[in-house]
Amino acid sequence: QKEVEQNSGPLSVPEGAIASLNCTYSDRGSQSFFWYRQYSGKSPELIMSIYSNGDKEDGRFTAQLNKASQYVSLLIRDSQPSDSATYLCAVTYNQGGKLIFGQGTELSVKP
Amino acid sequence: EPEVTQTPSHQVTQMGQEVILRCVPISNHLYFYWYRQILGQKVEFLVSFYNNEISEKSEIFDDQFSVERPDGSNFTLKIRSTKLEDSAMYFCASRSGAMRNTGELFFGEGSRLTVL
Fold it and tell me: What is the model's pLDDT at position B100?
């Protein structure tokens, strides 16, 4: 069974701090990695994708991938209250394959 | 900006009734999906659809579920005889055919199904 694991939180950080969200996955055959954001009662929204080892930066967001450790992370710099949401890690195992989601980490950014 | 639209936003039904959830994917997208999320739980894959046929389905997607794309724009999920445990938010998603973007899905706002 292919699994994606996340700490459900809640993770609470003060405004302006760095939020660090972590995810591990079970299958070494995983190909593509994604972070989605889900506000309460809303649908998932893609914020980052990463396909190869290393870091990928997009504005205040940095995704990090370590395939040897089967580990993906998301850093949010200068966290804002509007970043308060559940962050979903997701993985695909083959081209065209389904997305498998983790249970999500709830982030709360306190003003 | 193009978006995935879903109807109805909320449906309440009696156990054993048939339900059809409708989705209009983004017009130039080629891959279509249904996911569900039971309250407080993870987003779960149900089915993927490409080239007018199911390409993959999960264990959840049993004989009570079916999908079709009847007219080239709508993508529907039918639950033949609803059970209490079918109560969930159902998300439709679509993506383009670009090989690299296999997980870059665009989700609709969801249809909340409540089975009484």
Answer: 57
Q: Which of B31, B42, B101 sits opposite A102 (nearest CB)?
A: B42
Q: Is the pLDDT of residue A71 over 90?
A: yes
Q: Is the pLDDT of residue A39 over 80?
A: yes
B54 Cα to chain A: minimum distance (Å):
12
B 67-86 near A (Cβ less than 8 A) = none
Q: How many CB pairs under 8 A join A and B?
A: 59
| Surface-to-core class of residue A32, CB atoms within 10 Å of its CB (0-12 exposed, 13-18 middle, 19+ buried) | buried
Average pLDDT over all residues of chain A: 93
Residue ranges, chain B, pLDDT below 70: 98-102
Give me the amino acid identity at B43: V
**To which residue do tokens 């794309």 refer?**
B69
Give the length of chain B: 116
Does residue A86 register a pLDDT over 70?
yes
Instruction: Give the C-alpha distances (Å, rounded to integers) separating B56 from A100, B48, B53, B107.
Output: 13, 5, 9, 18
- Exposure letters B15-42 (e unless 16+ CB within 10 A, then b): eeeebebbbbbbeebebbbbbbbeeeeb
A104 contacts: CB under 8 Å, gap ≥ 6? A6, A8, A38, A86, A87, A88, A89, B42
Average pLDDT over residues A96-106: 89
